[in-house]
UniProtKB/TrEMBL annotation:
Belongs to the universal ribosomal protein uL4 family. This is Large ribosomal subunit protein uL4m. Residues 112-142 are annotated as: Disordered. Coiled coil: none annotated. InterPro entries: Ribosomal_uL4, Ribosomal_uL4-like, Ribosomal_uL4_dom_sf. Keywords: Ribonucleoprotein, Ribosomal protein. The keyword Transferase does not apply. The keyword Ribosomal protein applies. It comes from Steccherinum ochraceum.
Amino acid sequence: MSLGLRRAFNQLGRRWLSTATVAESFSHDLPLSLATATASTLSKGGSTIASNQAISLNRPVYVTLSHLVPSETDTRQDEVVELDPFIFSHPIRRDVLHLCVVQHLDSLRQGTASTKTRGEVRGSGRKIRPQKGSGRARLGDAQSPMLRGGGVAFGPKPRDFSTELPRKVIMMGLRVALSARVKEHGLGIVQTLSWSTAKTKTLAERLNDLGWRKTLFVTGDEKIPEGLERAAGNLYKVEAKRVSEVTVYDLVKWPRVVLDVSAVEWLETALAKDSKSPWGTSLRPGST
């Protein structure tokens, strides 16, 4: 379902829906028994949709809308965000995740290890002793790999360890990783990641109240909100990134991923079925 169709509800352009609206939409499409179970699940205010129910892949995914900044006047406690099932309810492929993670870790290797061969070690080519007559073993020059201080046989040289993956495999890896986070209840959606203060203590207390530990914040804006970036800079269990920098490794590494609405829109556009690589010709997320 495209973004334009999902906005057909036209609640002033907002991407969230009330729990009652979601339950009603499910009740029209599902059998009576399943619709009743789904409506009861949603009416309890749970943050997950009946992903364990027998719902087909083309049905939307709903995630409860969270709020990073606390507000006493905020009454939208039961709002949920509708997500594209092609991206957020993809079949789990462990093999694709493995390929993407290995490809990312390969690109992190420095590949600067270097040794000298016998031709690069300083010294002359003079033969150490005569070939015959000494009664000892035959030796050539002092740069032989058999001797202390000589060259290294088959030693490492600077090389590029990076590997390539097809664009479609990387994009599928992102869909699988996002779907795994939804299935494990580790995906959060917020309207904005704006944070008013740069104090680390304030952000740490708020994250503790929300139960968000080891969290990756992802924004769809061109720049990470300054308040969040500075406040999270000293928290080793918190990281903030732009959505174009996120890799499959990030989504697998962090047990909780929090996206703002603009990041969701970016992902649904970039990872659509017929979409081209959103990272240009490099085909590597995080390289921009």
